[in-house]
Amino acid sequence: MKIKLALWIRLACGLWLLGYLAAASALAQNADEIVQKMRDAYGVLNSYSDSAVIVREYGATDRHTFDTFFSRSPRHFLLDFHKQGGDRYVVWGDPDAFHTWWKTTMQTTDYPNPNNTAAITLSGPPTQDAIAKIPTLLYSKANLGGDFANFADSKLDGNEDIGGHACYRIAGKASDMYSATGKEVNIRKVVLWIDKQSFLLRQVREEWPPLGGTSTRVTTTYEPQANPPIEPAKFKFAPETK
Q1: What is the 3 state secondary structure string of 62-116?
Q2: What's the CATH code, domain 5-235?
Q3: pLDDT by residue (tens digit) across 179-236?
Q4: CA distances from 127 to 39, 85, 101, 199, 233 (A)
Q5: Domain boundaries defined on the chain
């Protein structure tokens, strides 16, 4: 009897483990599918706009804001970032070039076609990486890298409302990678809140391991609009000069 009982216990445990692994695999597959639908949703938009808030918690708390406007054809783009304390950084594009302006330096930099991608890839630090999220999804064919280029280990972590909108909550990790060596750096936990109707991002949360006893958490919350009418004036920017 003891032998039979032990066999039944082993069999039950084995069946439970198989069921658990199958469920975990299904959740991972669902998460990957949802993330791909998110990527696809941005890639086919004709126009896009958002207003967003970045909250950085690192012992202290900083709060920054920015707005994004995008038109695929004719090509126009503008990201207007306002840093807590008064600094400002603007990236804008037209059919001929992209441009950046930084209030700290009062300097405008032009990036004419076809070498225009650096306007986005070099603007991460002064925009608190706002430029490395949605814009890289909108210009998905340009191979811009960005914060979601190495998003891995995704799993469906539940459902949650953000700003009254039902969202999938997808947990995973992100990192930057050296192309020459494949070495991963800047590894952090990431949670995505993806709108169930539009598949646009409503919120992104990144968490880094403690450094010197203090961890860092950055939460970006969006109010996105898919294919809105955008007045041409929204894409106009006149840089300040010294």
Answers
A1: EEEEEEEEEECCCCEEEEEEECCCCCEEEEEECCCEEEEEECCCCEEEEEECCCC
A2: 2.50.20.20
A3: 677 788 999 999 999 999 999 999 999 999 887 778 999 999 999 999 999 999 999 9
A4: 22, 13, 11, 24, 22
A5: 5-235
